[in-house]
Please model this.
Amino acid sequence: MSKLKISGTIRFIEETDAEKSEHLSQKLVLSLAPDNFLGMTTKTGDGCSEIHLESGKVGSILATADDLLMNADGAVRVKKSSQK
Model:
């Protein structure tokens, strides 16, 4: 019997010229990379970066996605407040 695998991808897209010139999505994804667990991979590219999640449990995917998005939100808030 094969195990069910659930997967999802979170994509961070650089929308403004400033974000693109700073490679903001790449910096954000790489700052989250230390949290990588088995079944989590990161990919950076021109204009967007991705975190791909895969697990046998939907709860693990949801909890990890929630943690990543909360950490990403915190990083964006710190960046914005440091520019003031």
